[in-house]
Amino acid sequence: MNVVAAEPIIAWQKHEGRRVARVKGHDVILCENCGFRHVLPVPDEAQLEPAYRDLYYSEAKPSFLAHAGEDQDWAALGQTDRLESFEKQLGQGRRRLLDIGSGPGFFLHTAQARGWEVLGVEPSRQAAAHARSLGVEVVEGFFNAETAAGLCEFDAVHMNNVLEHVPDPAALIALARDRLSPGGLICIGVPNDFSPFQIAGRASTGAGEWWVVPHHHLNYFDFATAAALLERLGFRVAERTTSFPMEAFLMMGEDYTGDGELGRACHKKRKRFDLALEATGLRETRRAFYRALADVGLGREAVVIAVKP
Ligand SMILES: [Zn+2]
Fold first, then answer.
1. Per-residue DSSP letters for 86-114?
2. Same domain, residue pair 21 and 69
3. How far, in Å, is the centroid of ligand 1 from the Cα of 13?
4. 306 Cα–ligand 1 center, Å
């Protein structure tokens, strides 16, 4: 049964494409112009600003800062994976890192401890204050033409869980590209959405498209659309990787959608999975496992590292 083919084509301003989901009155299309899935209509940045400046970590993600601290032993594995990849590709002496949407600052803190010169840009007051408490320098605000103009050149730009939230991801990446030295790296991490395991998880739980959260996520990427966006902006893709395919829990009968406690329990299991490999000296096996999952479009997030020629 091909449900998608029966869905209408919807157009709004420069955006046009077939509808792939409709959740809480919001349409999501696979946009022919943008090359990825996004909500319609697209809100403008001014509408979003208060949500990210003051409310995001108190209303949308009330336990995020507490959990992020509790998770840091595990999260450091993924942070180190990315930093070691940057270091290998950049060679000696190129260690200037900009983290756009640096959140509570743990990634930059890990980088700083490895000898990187680091700077974060972060709109949330609470998150920026947390990062500063770790000894990390942060510009408080959105990354836009105005804040970008005041910055020096960097060898790597990192954007984790940012592009799904912004009205114009291409414009943001173009601005970041202009701050990169030649041969510099960009690393984007976004949820891997409409993935085969999500589709299977939806079928086995009847949960609907739980990953479509139109008030917070405007854009829905996968490996192909995230890589294509970077290529369209002149980057050469160097690496794709991911994290544990959380949807596998749904397929095994643990329906964590709408159940925060079970979600947290499943999250603890995947942490144990990663930490068990680390404790056994199998770090490279874990890395190879996640790169192989990414190659077949699976894993909870799509992480793409690309080079500015
Ligand atoms: Zn579009």
1. HHHHH-TT--EEEEET-TTSHHHHHHHHT
2. no
3. 9
4. 22
